[in-house]
């Protein structure tokens, strides 16, 4: 092989090597990417498409384009509006309860952080958030059974007349909120505990020297220190609440009346009980946009809070 | 009483009350699983059941073990598929420099916001077209896919912790990216991989919505079966209790072993604990 030939051959082989490396790199990203497009982008685009049609699951070959009529109908459908209101109430109150009780619990476990018993109790109390939601729903259906459940029995022991936890329209949503917050308070507790652990001990010592009371410490040291972490928790909990389904499916099925109707359950019923997939898809698209908008706002707020 | 004991005694009482609140409902269901139908709803409540009474478990498992098996197969299959797809992607996103890298990472994260209900009808139709309704394969595919965003994000957070020098050294030694990934990055990230895999396992194990409409008989998963014990006329509480206890075993084991990783896991690495 002459010198001139190698000079020409080398860049070519290098180019070959580089394109081979590019191929190799692509193979890391392409499978997951294609998979995600197929499983999330495609269904989403198709849902939007369906939502613009009058479509019945059993007669999909006879779809009719109706533009935004489904959306127009949704926002005059009192059941859907109830579902929106319920999910808003449920999300805000659950997260509030989770933060308040979670903070208290985090403080308690923070003061026991170096004890063995504290660690054991903490691991036991975070189990609810990993338990299958369907089981959580059933556990509480059992406990809140109107005539024979332990909750009403215990209320009776202290002289309170039995409550219709799930059957009383004015109480049913509160019961669902109670169950939902019961399951997720441990999550907020863990987040805040991680935040408290990140506070340097000197800050506490300095505050103690200056004679700060517990509420001074909470307001000036602890709450600022955990604010960022709690915001992350709030975003995640909002997204999760908007897609809440299992607990309602197993406890109240949206009733009594529309008192515990929520948007995912509404969409589910339209799709798979009435087979009105165009209408159901419109409801699902509304949830998706709500999640995106709420997340965007919260993330923006989070960023500006971090810049302070 | 010393100052030290006094300063822990109040928090200890608080911790006991908190733990009781979060554990007692589960314990109550556990106790119910050993009661007869009349014992489950006796007034006053039967506080301590006869633990040798295991008929509920026997009856429940005799009828429903195929569905329990479905759940195990679907969950294990989905976990493996998800991890196999997500780990290389996470490695690529943390180690390759290319245009649009951040955009790609953000897009992957954003797909987690999609409510599963929005994917329900389209996926139902696709699987219907392929004749795959009521097949455990459909569930494996869906559960793996739904957990990819989460798995990629958590995996990125631990691949970022692999020392840069280690990756560079492997490259200088002439390792291809595949070799670097398999021989360097994976072995040093073992505990992170275990975290991702167990989370995906639990998410798939708990899933109800997709299983409700993608399965009818043969491929039903355990959560679907449990929910079917609740009928408008009657609820078979003795079976519900036994099934709930069995369904809860993997999550409980997982929580006790992995509790240190739960915060960073559930927040997808956004918060370090």
Automatic annotation (TrEMBL), chain A:
Entry annotated with the keyword Transmembrane: yes
Q: Which organism is it from?
A: Rhodobium gokarnense
User: Which sequence ranges are marked TM in the entry?
Assistant: 26-49, 87-112, 124-144, 217-239, 279-302
The similarity annotation says: Belongs to the binding-protein-dependent transport system permease family.
- Name by which UniProt lists this protein: Multiple sugar transport system permease protein
Record domain ABC transmembrane type-1: where: 84-298
- Keyword Acetylation in annotation: no
Chief subcellular location: membrane
| Protein's membrane topology | Multi-pass membrane protein
UniProtKB/TrEMBL annotation, chain B:
Q: Which InterPro entries match?
A: BP-dep_ABC_trans_perm (IPR050901), MetI-like (IPR000515), MetI-like_sf (IPR035906)
Q: Does the keyword Transport apply?
A: yes
The places in or outside the cell where this protein is found are:
Cell membrane
The segment(s) forming the ABC transmembrane type-1 domain are: 68-258
Q: Output the CDD domains linked to this UniProt entry.
A: TM_PBP2
Q: Where are the transmembrane segments?
A: 12-31, 67-91, 103-124, 136-159, 193-216, 236-258
* Record bears the keyword Calcium: no
**Coiled-coil segments:** none
Q: How does it sit in the membrane?
A: Multi-pass membrane protein
Pfam families annotated for this entry? BPD_transp_1
User: Which coarse location class applies to the principal site listed for this UniProt protein?
Assistant: membrane
What are the entry keywords?
Answer: Cell membrane, Membrane, Sugar transport, Transmembrane, Transmembrane helix, Transport
For this chain, the family text in UniProt reads: Belongs to the binding-protein-dependent transport system permease family. MalFG subfamily.
* Reported function: Part of the ABC transporter complex MalEFGK involved in maltose/maltodextrin import. Probably responsible for the translocation of the substrate across the membrane.
- What name has this protein been given in UniProt? Maltose/maltodextrin transport system permease protein MalG
* Native organism taxonomy: Bacteria, Pseudomonadati, Pseudomonadota, Alphaproteobacteria, Hyphomicrobiales
């Amino acid at each position: 092989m002459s010198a001139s030939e190698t000079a020409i051959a080398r860049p070519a082989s290098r180019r070959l090597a580089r394109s081979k490396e590019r191929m190799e790199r692509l193979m890391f990203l392409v499978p997951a990417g294609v998979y995600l497009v197929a499983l999330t982008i495609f269904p989403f685009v198709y849902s939007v498409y369906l939502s613009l049609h009058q479509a019945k699951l059993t007669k999909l070959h006879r779809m009719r384009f109706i533009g935004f009529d489904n959306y127009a109908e949704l926002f005059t459908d009192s059941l859907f509006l109830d579902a929106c209101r319920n999910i808003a109430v449920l999300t805000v109150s659950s997260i509030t309860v989770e933060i308040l009780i979670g903070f208290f619990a985090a403080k308690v476990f923070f003061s026991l952080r170096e004890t063995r018993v504290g660690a054991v109790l903490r691991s036991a109390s975070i189990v609810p958030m990993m338990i299958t939601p369907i089981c959580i729903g059933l556990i509480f259906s059992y406990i809140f059974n109107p005539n024979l459940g332990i909750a009403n029995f215990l209320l009776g022991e202290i002289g309170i007349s039995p409550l219709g936890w799930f059957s009383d329209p004015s109480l049913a949503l509160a019961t669902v909120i109670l169950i939902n917050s019961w399951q997720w308070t441990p999550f907020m507790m863990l987040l805040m505990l991680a935040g408290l652990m990140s506070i340097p001990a000197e800050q506490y010592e300095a505050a103690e020297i200056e004679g700060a009371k517990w509420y001074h410490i909470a307001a000036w040291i602890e709450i600022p220190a955990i604010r960022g972490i709690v915001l992350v928790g709030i975003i995640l909990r909002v997204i999760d609440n908007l897609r809440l389904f299992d607990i309602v499916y197993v406890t109240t099925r949206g009733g009594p009346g529309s008192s515990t109707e929520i948007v995912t359950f509404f969409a589910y019923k339209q799709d798979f009980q009435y087979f009105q997939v165009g209408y159901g898809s419109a409801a699902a698209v509304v949830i998706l946009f709500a999640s995106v908008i709420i997340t965007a706002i919260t993330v923006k707020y989070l960023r500006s809070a971090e810049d302070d | 009483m010393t100052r030290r004991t006094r300063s822990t005694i109040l928090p200890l009482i608080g911790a006991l009350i908190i733990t009781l609140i979060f554990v007692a409902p589960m314990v109550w269901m556990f106790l119910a699983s050993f009661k007869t139908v009349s014992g489950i709803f006796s007034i006053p409540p039967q506080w301590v059941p006869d633990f040798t009474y295991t008929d509920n478990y026997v009856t429940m498992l005799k009828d429903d073990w195929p569905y329990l098996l479905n759940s195990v197969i679907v969950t294990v299959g989905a976990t493996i598929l998800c991890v196999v797809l997500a780990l290389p992607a996470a490695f690529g996103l943390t180690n390759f420099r290319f245009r649009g890298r951040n955009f790609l990472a953000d897009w992957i994260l954003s797909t987690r916001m999609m409510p599963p209900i929005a994917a329900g009808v389209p996926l139902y139709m696709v699987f219907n077209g392929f004749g795959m309704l009521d097949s455990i394969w459909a569930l494996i595919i869906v559960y793996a896919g739904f957990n990819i965003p989460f798995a990629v994000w958590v995996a990125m957070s631990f691949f970022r912790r692999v020392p840069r020098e280690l990756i560079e050294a492997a490259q200088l030694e002439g390792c291809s990216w595949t070799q670097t990934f398999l021989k360097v990055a994976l072995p040093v990230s073992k505990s992170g991989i275990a975290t991702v895999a167990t989370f995906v396992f639990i998410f798939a194990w708990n899933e109800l919505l997709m299983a409700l409409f993608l399965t009818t008989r043969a491929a039903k998963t355990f959560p679907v079966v449990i929910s079917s014990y609740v009928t408008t006329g009657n609820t078979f509480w003795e079976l519900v209790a036994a099934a709930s206890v069995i369904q809860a075993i993997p999550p409980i084991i997982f929580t006790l072993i992995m509790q240190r990783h739960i915060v960073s896991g559930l927040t997808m690495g956004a918060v370090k604990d």
